[in-house]
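Please decode residue identities from the backbone states below.
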């Protein structure tokens, strides 16, 4: 690559009105190379730099509708759009520029081909059913063969979860489900280090899904996360770009470190100007293709999606390798302007090689306060969290610019309860409030039913959520349509009466032949069938065919009265009945946590979680969530009815919360791309952050993302027992960095 002669480059045409870009940002803004790759430190302003580059292109005369900004999350796309609106002071212009998440963009392109839209599966558990179907198809085919192959098919959830993770990684790396010419399954197994059976199932799952191939008469019937990117990339390769892609004059990609081979393939075709002649542009054929300009910005230390195929090696060795070297320039945003020099020292210590070299520099002169608080247990940690927030607010801090960043969703139970008790408003991103998680909603539904008080679950929308959760935990099969439509809207108007009917008439009643048949129908369809049967019987009676009418009636009565339930269904029903009886038979002042412990044990919820959730990590999180919910009741030290009413008050407070003066509780992934005046990181202990069984490199990057969201004040909450303190906190060398910076050392010498 040739160095850029900035003196020969034109001066910038867009000058923001409210701030002065840094020298590095100006260099990128005025750079006229066709491909600009900007690698940056956290807080160096890469999103702002992309927005500056976008506005520079607008000032150069590019049509805003011909500018595309791609990100790897919808939240990041919104951040870029808001930044463009802020810099330009023109919301209409910002809306004209296409800012969109990569997979959403690919969905739009695929939908533009005129295919029937594919269903979007949002969880691994939804994909699980199709993996089981594919395995059943393979087993049936092999059973019918004279010499069946010995294929190890996934049966248990852990095996299916492992398959789904590996399949997602193969798609990210653009591995076709079909074998190449002269390739065997054994060849693939050796090449990718996976068993041969994986590739048999991979091919069959994609066949069940509908391969998404351009030449396939069966387009994809469903897609899970990132499948749209995989499908579009494969179509582009198969057709060599002979499909119509939207055309742009300038393309930007934020969070470039999350790029993988599949998304890169789509990007290459977006940046390939020769496709204009394919689309029949006469001007392109006469004058030659019009070049598409590109900027990508990212931070290698923020790679936390290895499961999606992103890795440093690909970015360094493959990304942009085919672009003309004279057209490519790699620039840096080396200084952070988010936090001060002390934080920069700590981040360098965390991400460095053990030497004293500064990996990150700060362009800010004022300090970032760093506080370390110690706790005896997680309950005490939540209390210290609130104390720190109240103190921060008293000192003039803004809660609406404050974030509590959590490693795992189950941790929000103690945090949300502590915030409510302190009268602090909060909002949730990257996870659901614990009050809305299936395991908690199921317990709240049982509590409300047993206490005969549905008012403890406020909000009409809760009715279907509680029913869905109870159906899940009872492993009760119902058509999705039964949770939609007019029936539940009417039911929500009188939830007490209808919820009683649902428990007594559905979950606690032995299932009959009729129940099993109509469970696959919507309520409207069931009502139509019942009306049609009644009208048929009446018509037969009127025509004198009483024998046929009586036969229809007997058959209907037989289906309605004949029990047909599996042993597991019966066991689940009796466990639910016993749980309700346990609560109703308890003394009114019986401790809530004791009753809830007994209900969780009676329903066998922790063991059942391992059956219900494909991903073992999700099953563990649900188990931790159940423990946290019980501990929450124990801390309240009250009766079950008092606890149910207290939960109602928390629920109402969360629903009424407004963004103004409302702090954020979020996951690390949701915090990515954002910054806050104050950040608090609780529960920083070994086995929690880093999480057990997680990739250590990605966990360190995840911690890096969390600590680098802060601008002015960072609070780290660690256990009193030094042996339990997270190794990442120790790597920060907090005390030494503070002393070297000449600031007050608020930490013990143990944190050297």
């Amino acid at each position: 690559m040739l160095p850029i002669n900035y003196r020969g480059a034109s001066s910038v045409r867009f000058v923001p009105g409210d701030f002065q870009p840094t020298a590095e940002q100006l260099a990128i803004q005025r750079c006229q190379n066709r491909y600009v790759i900007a690698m940056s430190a956290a807080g160096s302003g890469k999103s702002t730099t992309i927005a500056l580059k976008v506005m520079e292109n607008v000032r150069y005369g590019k049509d805003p509708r011909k500018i595309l900004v791609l990100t790897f999350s919808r939240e990041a796309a919104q951040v870029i759009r808001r930044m463009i609106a802020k810099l330009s002071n023109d919301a209409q212009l910002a809306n004209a520029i296409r800012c969109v998440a990569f997979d959403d963009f690919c969905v739009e392109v695929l939908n533009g081909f005129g295919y029937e839209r594919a269903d979007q599966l949002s969880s691994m558990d939804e994909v699980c059913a199709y993996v089981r179907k594919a395995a059943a198809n393979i087993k049936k085919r092999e059973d019918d063969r004279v010499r069946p192959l010995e294929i190890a098919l996934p049966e248990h959830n852990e095996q299916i979860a492992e398959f789904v993770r590996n399949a997602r990684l193969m798609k990210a790396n653009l591995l076709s489900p079909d074998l190449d010419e002269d390739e065997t399954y054994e060849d693939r197994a050796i090449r990718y280090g996976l068993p041969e059976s994986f590739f048999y199932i991979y091919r069959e799952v994609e066949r069940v899904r509908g391969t998404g191939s351009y030449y396939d008469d069966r387009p994809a019937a469903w897609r899970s996360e990132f499948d749209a990117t995989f499908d579009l990339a494969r179509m582009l390769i198969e057709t060599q770009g002979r499909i119509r892609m939207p055309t742009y004059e300038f393309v930007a990609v934020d969070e470039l470190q999350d790029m993988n081979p599949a998304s890169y393939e789509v990007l290459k075709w977006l940046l390939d100007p020769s496709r204009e002649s394919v689309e029949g542009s006469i001007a392109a054929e006469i004058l030659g293709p019009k070049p598409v300009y590109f900027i990508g910005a990212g931070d290698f230390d923020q790679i936390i999606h290895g499961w999606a195929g992103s890795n440093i090696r690909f970015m360094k060795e493959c990304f942009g390798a085919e672009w003309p070297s004279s057209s490519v320039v790699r620039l840096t945003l080396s200084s952070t302007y988010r936090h001060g020099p002390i934080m920069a020292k700590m981040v360098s210590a965390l991400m460095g090689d053990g030497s004293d070299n500064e990996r990150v520099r700060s362009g800010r002169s004022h300090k970032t306060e760093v506080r370390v608080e110690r706790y005896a247990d997680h309950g005490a940690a939540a209390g210290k969290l609130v104390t720190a927030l109240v103190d921060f607010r008293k000192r003039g801090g803004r809660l609406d610019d404050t974030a509590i960043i959590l490693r795992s969703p189950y941790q929000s139970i103690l945090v949300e309860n502590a915030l409510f008790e302190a009268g602090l408003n909060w909002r949730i991103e990257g996870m659901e409030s614990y009050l809305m998680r299936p395991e908690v909603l199921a317990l709240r539904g049982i509590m409300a039913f047993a206490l005969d008080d549905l008012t403890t679950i406020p909000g009409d929308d809760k009715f279907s959520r509680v029913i869905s959760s109870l159906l899940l935990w009872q492993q009760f099969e119902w058509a999705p349509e039964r949770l939609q439509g007019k029936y539940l809207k009417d039911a929500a108007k009188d939830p007490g009466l209808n919820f009683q009917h649902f428990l007594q008439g559905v979950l606690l009643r032995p299932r009959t032949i009729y129940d099993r048949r109509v469970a696959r129908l919507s309520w409207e369809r069931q009502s139509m069938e019942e009306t049609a049967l009644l009208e048929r019987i009446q018509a037969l009676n009127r025509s004198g065919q009483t024998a046929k009418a009586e036969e229809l009636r007997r058959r209907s009565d037989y289906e309605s009265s004949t029990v047909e339930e599996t042993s597991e269904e019966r066991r689940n029903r009796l466990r639910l009945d016993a749980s309700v009886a346990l609560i109703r038979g308890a003394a009114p002042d019986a401790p809530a946590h004791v009753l809830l412990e007994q209900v969780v044990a009676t329903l066998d919820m922790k063991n059942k979680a391992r059956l219900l959730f494909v991903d073992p990590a999700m099953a563990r999180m649900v188990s931790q969530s159940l423990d946290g919910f019980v501990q929450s009741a124990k801390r309240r030290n009250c009766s079950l009815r008092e606890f149910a009413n207290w939960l109602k008050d928390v629920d109402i407070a969360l629903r009424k919360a407004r963004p103004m003066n409302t702090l954020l509780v979020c996951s690390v992934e949701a915090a990515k791309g954002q910054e806050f005046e104050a950040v608090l990181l609780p529960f920083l202990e070994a086995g929690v952050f880093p999480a057990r069984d997680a990739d250590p490199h990605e966990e360190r990057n995840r911690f890096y993302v969390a600590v680098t969201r802060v601008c002015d004040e960072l609070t780290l909450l660690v256990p009193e027992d030094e042996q339990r303190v997270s190794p990442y906190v120790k790597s920060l060398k907090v005390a030494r960095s503070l002393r070297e910076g000449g600031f007050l050392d608020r930490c013990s010498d143990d944190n050297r």
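Observation: The chain has 33 helices and 16 strands.
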